[in-house]
Amino acid sequence: MIHIVHSSAREGGIKTVSTILNEGFIQNGYESTLFNMNEYGNSFFATVKNSFKELKKYNTNDIFILQHIDPIVLGILLLLKKYKNIINVIHIDLQIYYKSASLIKKLILRIIFFLIRNKALVFVSRESELKAKKLFRFTSTTTIYNLFEINKIETEKKSKANVVLGSVSRFVNIKNIGLAIRTIKALYEQGTAISLKIYGSGAEEIALKEYVKKMNCEDYIIFMGESDKIKEIYNSFDALISFSILEGLPTVILESISYGKPVFHTDCTSGPRELMAPSSNPLEKTDSYEKTDTGYLVKPVTKLRSYAKEMNDYEKEYISFLSNFIEDIRQNRFSMQFDAKPFSHETIMGKWLKLIKDLQK
């Protein structure tokens, strides 16, 4: 029996991929369950304690797939109780996550990673795997992308006078939506016919809306709210834009490609390069911009300036990058060719089933 454990408070992200993976195992004849730690407590320690009490009722030969950091902490208790068939899944750049932690948290993480160093570790990004394996000396790692069926939807190609860009993300600092707002404003003031639709919600929502007001760009930067109508979202704009400073494997890029929409994305850690330039080295980053079949990879953001009044010299380069990107959109210069096989049900479930069989040997 397989138990997929996550700790998601809401729909989206890890909860979504856990649900899809669970359905995949069931379709392949496995008995599989979803377990949400978030339903078993209001604090971290209570959640871990109560979840452990529930999970230890299961057979020690069962397989536990632990989706990200909180479940991995819970997995240490399972290991102590002789549960050996554990697969730890990392959904973020572990090196960056570790380096940005406090000293106490780093110590705790070091202990955890030492205990699981020889256990099965799955990364959703090749870049994240390579960096973490070197830093923590893991011995049993692999990369398995999140399952995502790409059904290319052809869109009408026509000349566009006004280009509508879209931002689709949680409203949190690392998504760096403020820089997108500054860049759009700069181009608009140069006379470019451009607008931005921002989809999502989150902790920074009030601050972002106030920022748009202060920057006096409410006429062409519009907050669309949160929506689960994916088709309507991507049909409402011409291209996706993101200045994110950190990713796991950004599903929005796959969604955008699926709807035939080019992508303007920072070449950040980790995932965008693997999706947009899959034949390149995921550890190498552009210091300018790189045009691909599906859009632009632009230089990573080096400093978070969420609500700055002006663009600094480093940020001003994004203005010309985005201007070139918009012209390429108007001239339909992106082929949108994409190899969807690495994300197909057949490929991803094949890797998971092999991993499970190897674990049970």
Describe this structure in words.
- The chain is an alpha/beta fold and 361 residues long.
- Helix content is 40%, strand content 17%.
- The chain has a 7-stranded mixed sheet, with helices on both faces. Strands 2-1-3-4-5-6 form a 6-stranded parallel sheet, with helices on both faces.
- Strand 3 (63-67), helix 3 and strand 4 (86-90) form a beta-alpha-beta unit.
- The longest helix has 18 residues, at 313-330.
- The two termini are 15 Å apart.
- The model has no long low-confidence stretch (mean pLDDT 93).
Blueprint (SSEs and pairs):
Blueprint lengths: L1 E5 L7 H14 L4 E5 L7 H12 L7 E5 L1 H12 L5 E5 L3 H6 L3 H13 L4 E4 L2 H11 L4 E3 L19 E6 L8 H13 L4 E6 L5 H10 L6 E5 L4 H6 L3 E4 L8 H8 L4 E4 L5 H5 L12 E4 L2 E4 L14 H18 L14 H15 L2
Parallel strand pairs: 1-2, 1-3, 3-4, 4-5, 5-6, 7-8, 7-10, 8-9, 10-11, 11-13
Antiparallel strand pairs: 12-13
Helix pairs in contact: 2-3, 7-12
Distance between the termini: 15 Å
Number-wise, the strands total 13
Number of helices: 13
Helicity level: 25-40%
The strands making up the biggest β-sheet line up spatially as 9-8-7-10-11-13-12
Unreliable stretches covering 5 or more consecutive residues: none
Categorize the overall geometry.
Answer: globular
Rounded Rg? 21 Å
Main β-sheet, in a few words?
7 strands, mixed
From N to C, what is the helix and strand string? EHEHEHEHHEHEEHEHEHEHEHEEHH
Question: What is the gist of this entry?
Answer:
The chain is an alpha/beta fold and 361 residues long.
